[in-house]
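[step 3/7] inverse_fold.run input=structure_tokens len=517
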């Protein structure tokens, strides 16, 4: 175990690539480099609000002293650190956006532990060369959301960046939360994010857009050597791309498993390691609806809605393939790998759904049943999380009344007669199929309870915790932090396992959110 302030950080990324080491943080284009040096901007009164003990243990980091908190707030940089903002580009809402980059994330350096090497990054630590018109800061509201949710995703077993610490800065940040011309001051905060790598599809797109073959090749080789060292040399780039396809397909299927909607699946928010990255206006599904998007900016086209996520994953991989094509004379190989996405996704998806339904095999009949589930749930729109937890112990030979009674806690509205019919028919089919599967009722239930979370971080809960924190009260925040560690057990946290209350349906921050953060 070592304290953050005592550690020798390494800086292999900045040592390997060309960067702008001037330290100039004036917003600008930085062609030809992969990063720009950026010292964090000090804040007035740093205070540690949260510390992820679990992650700190994994990284062998000692609890922070006051000096360490100064580092987590950007007030102190130790001699071994090389603070920088990474330069990337990307497609946003389907359009090429050109150079983007870490506008408010500053990498401090790489931390080695027995569990590997991790990058530590401060989000909200002040402007960088890539801040464009913005201030490089983050508000408490969005920082709490990122901190709690990335840890929650980790405990759900979903690949994600992590969060080590959350500090409040003592400074106010001006935000127009509703984008309606009424900006207001909000408390500022900084999250310390941790990941093996924060590289995004956009880093590769940047170099391709600059037609910089040499650095693109160098970045790919570096990524492969460090994160995909098992890949042999022959057709190495294609093999690597195939792994990115695989990881992305898996991540999409995992998001569908728990009803997670990212909200801003731009290519600059797609991790090259298949991690969930950049928590913004995300949401879990409350009522089951493929068209649901939590992002108010996404409303006109619902590009990033729940049901679209897997195909957007594919579209984004297409942008990555396009970037990689700069290094190929023929694009056929890349196209072929890309075309495997669909099958890989569906294989993951059916396996995952089989577990959600407590079935040991997924053959043609089970696949039909899975589609039937989707159709009926889309029709009835019950609370996804509550529905699947109830499904685990639905009476095998229940009467229609018993079945409806059983699922009552998951309904947001009274069902129409035709909907009742659909649901009871579905459950009757399901019970038959479950009986025909070669799995004991206990094993089936157990499998389901390991794959269907009992507790999810609903937006209205986050909203309440944030409101409390803004008043200086951390009771709900701490309870959520605890509850998220055992999402499949859900015991002791029954009050958090409620469907979204009526009042939260239309309240900003409780169902939908803006990108303002
Ligand atoms: P996002 O939609 O949060 O992934 O952000 C898209 C881009 O805008 C990224 O390059 C961010 O770094 C940048 N950005 C977002 N908010 C800010 C901010 N407050 N200050 C500077 N840059 C920002
Ligand atoms: Mg982003």
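[step 3/7] decode complete -> sequence:
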């Amino acid at each position: 175990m070592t304290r953050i302030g005592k550690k020798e950080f390494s800086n292999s990324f900045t040592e390997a690539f060309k960067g702008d080491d001037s330290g100039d943080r004036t917003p600008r284009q930085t062609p030809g480099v992969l990063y720009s040096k950026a010292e964090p901007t000090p804040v007035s009164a740093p205070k540690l609000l949260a510390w992820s003990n679990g992650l700190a243990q994994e990284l062998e980091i000692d609890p922070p002293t006051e000096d360490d908190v100064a580092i987590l707030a950007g007030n102190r940089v130790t001699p071994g650190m090389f603070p920088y903002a990474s330069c990337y580009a990307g497609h946003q809402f389907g359009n090429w956006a050109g150079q983007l980059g870490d506008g408010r994330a500053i990498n401090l350096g790489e931390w080695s532990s027995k569990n590997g090497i991790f990058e530590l990054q401060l989000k909200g630590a002040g402007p960088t060369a890539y801040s464009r018109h913005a201030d490089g800061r983050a508000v408490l509201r969005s920082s709490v959301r990122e901190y709690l949710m990335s840890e929650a995703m980790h405990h759900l077993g979903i690949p994600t960046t992590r969060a080590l610490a959350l500090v409040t800065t003592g400074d106010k940040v001006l935000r127009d939360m509703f984008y309606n011309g009424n900006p207001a001051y909000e408390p500022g905060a900084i999250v310390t994010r941790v990941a093996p790598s924060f590289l995004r599809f956009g880093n590769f797109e940047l170099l391709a857009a600059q037609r910089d073959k040499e650095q693109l090749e160098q970045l790919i080789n570096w990524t492969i050597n460090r994160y995909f060292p098992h890949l042999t040399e022959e057709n190495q780039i294609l093999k690597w791309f195939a792994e990115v396809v695989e990881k992305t397909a898996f991540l999409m299927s995992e998001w569908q498993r728990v009803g997670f909607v990212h909200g801003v699946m731009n290519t600059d928010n797609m991790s090259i390691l298949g991690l969930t990255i950049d928590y913004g206006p995300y949401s879990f599904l409350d009522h089951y609806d493929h068209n649901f998007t939590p992002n108010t900016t996404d409303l006109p086209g619902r590009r990033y809605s729940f049901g679209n996520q897997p195909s957007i994953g594919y579209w984004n991989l297409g942008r990555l393939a396009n970037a990689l094509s700069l290094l190929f004379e023929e694009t056929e190989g890349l196209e072929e790998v890309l075309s495997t996405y669909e099958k890989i996704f569906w294989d993951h998806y059916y396996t995952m759904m089989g577990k959600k339904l407590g079935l040991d095999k997924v053959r043609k009949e089970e696949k039909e049943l899975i589609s039937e589930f989707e159709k009926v749930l889309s029709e009835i729109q019950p609370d996804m999380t509550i529905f699947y937890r109830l499904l685990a112990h639905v009476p095998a030979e229940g009467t229609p009344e018993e079945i409806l009674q059983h699922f009552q806690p998951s309904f947001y509205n009274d069902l129409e007669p035709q909907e009742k019919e659909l649901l009871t028919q579905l459950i009757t089919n399901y019970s038959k199929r479950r009986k025909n599967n070669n799995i004991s009722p206990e094993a089936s239930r157990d499998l389901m309870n390991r794959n269907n979370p009992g507790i999810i971080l609903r937006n209205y809960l986050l909203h309440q915790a944030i409101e409390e924190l803004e008043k200086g009260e951390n009771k709900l925040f701490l309870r959520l932090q605890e509850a998220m560690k055992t999402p499949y057990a859900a015991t002791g946290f029954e009050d958090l396992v409620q469907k979204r209350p009526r009042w939260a349906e239309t309240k900003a921050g409780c169902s939908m959110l803006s990108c303002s953060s």
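[step 4/7] annotate
The CA atoms of residues 45 and 482 lie 27 Å apart.
Residues 236-258 form the longest helix (23 residues).
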